[in-house]
TrEMBL record:
One example GO MF annotation: 3,4-dihydroxy-2-butanone-4-phosphate synthase activity
Purpose: Catalyzes the conversion of D-ribulose 5-phosphate to formate and 3,4-dihydroxy-2-butanone 4-phosphate.
Identification of the protein by name: 3,4-dihydroxy-2-butanone 4-phosphate synthase
NCBIfam families with a match to the protein in the record: ribB
InterPro entries: DHBP_synth_RibB-like_a/b_dom (IPR017945), DHBP_synthase_RibB (IPR000422)
């Protein structure tokens, strides 16, 4: 089950993190304590400059990896590094690569690795744009993203989606300067404050995807128009472009018992008792999500629709 212990007010909301990510900034994303229990620097591959790559190398383990959507991995014809993955969390490494750009020399410099990352995010790039082996390690994100696997790989790709960027990221584990050990929660919070970076947990990303992306997969029942485009009204929720908001959201019972107050923090909304009222979550496209529980919950009866959540396994 998803833990919402991360709703400490020192954490940033998903909307704040997405906005920073959209601007090309690093964000710090924390893993759950029952998984790797570490923090990663995450940035979109298209935004990696020489200076940003040098920053990553300076403050992390130095093994920069590139989470990619399955579509991009297939586009570049990248096979898995090994046929039998024995990595504890099944991190899906592909073969390593470097950009074939004539300016690339050894492939390991900040310049070379930054260029390789930007090439991975270049819509014009093909499999012929790279050579293997190399010094960049792509990771294949799973289909379904953080709803299926709550890892940094999937979180990075989800942030790219939410920010409207090519679904290619760059991530690396933060390490402590004093002893080289992995940064844990408190270390990551201190690091984020020192450098002015937004920080949150993978669980925050999961909630965002559950309340936003998952609904876009449903079949619209009617259409609404605004000044940007026509959008779909989906079941109990409206996901629209521009200033218009409205509609009601049915929360899945599997997270019903713990989501109400935490989601108020995540989406910056008001809470009355256990009922969330009128929250709005702007995204980089101006999209807003506004919802209201159908009725006040009771311990024995959950008055929420569940048919649209059959594929949303939050315990995996």
């Amino acid at each position: 089950m998803v833990s919402f212990e991360e709703t400490n007010p020192t954490f940033h909301s998903i909307s704040e993190a997405v906005e920073a990510f959209r601007k090309g900034e690093f964000i710090v994303v924390l893993d759950s304590t029952d998984r790797e229990n570490e923090g990663d620097l995450i940035i979109a591959a298209e935004d990696v400059t020489v200076e940003k790559m040098a920053f990553m190398v300076r403050w992390t383990s130095g093994l920069i990896v590139a989470p990619l959507s399955p579509t991009l991995v297939d586009k570049f014809s990248l096979p898995q590094m090994v046929p039998n993955n024995e990595e504890p969390h099944s991190t899906a490494f592909t073969i390593s690569l470097d950009s074939r750009d004539p300016s690339v020399t050894t492939g390991i410099s900040a310049y070379d690795r930054a260029l390789t990352l930007r090439t991975l995010a270049d819509p014009a790039a093909t499999a012929a744009s790279f050579r293997s082996p190399g010094h960049m390690f792509p990771l294949r994100a799973v289909e379904g993203g953080v709803l299926v696997r709550k890892g940094h790989t999937e979180a990075a790709v989800e942030f790219c989606k939410l920010a409207g960027k090519v679904e290619a990221g760059a991530i690396c584990e933060l390490v402590r300067e004093r002893d080289g050990l992995m940064m844990r929660r408190d270390d990551c919070l201190e690091f984020g404050k020192k450098w002015g970076l937004k920080f949150l947990s993978v669980s925050f990303v999961l909630v965002s995807v559950l309340t936003l992306s998952n609904y876009r997969k449903l079949t619209p029942t009617n259409r609404l128009s605004d000044r940007w485009r026509t959008v779909g009204r989906v079941g109990e929720i409206n996901v629209v472009r521009g200033h218009r908001t409205g509609g009601a959201l049915s929360l899945p019972p599997s997270i019903h018992s713990s989501i109400h107050k935490p989601i108020a923090h995540l989406l910056n909304c008001a809470v009355i008792g256990t009922t969330v009222l009128y929250p709005a979550m702007p995204t980089t496209y101006g999209t807003q999500l506004r919802y209201q529980p159908i009725s006040k919950p009771t311990p024995k009866r959950l008055p929420y629709r569940t048919d649209q959540y059959r594929n949303a396994n939050l315990d995996g």
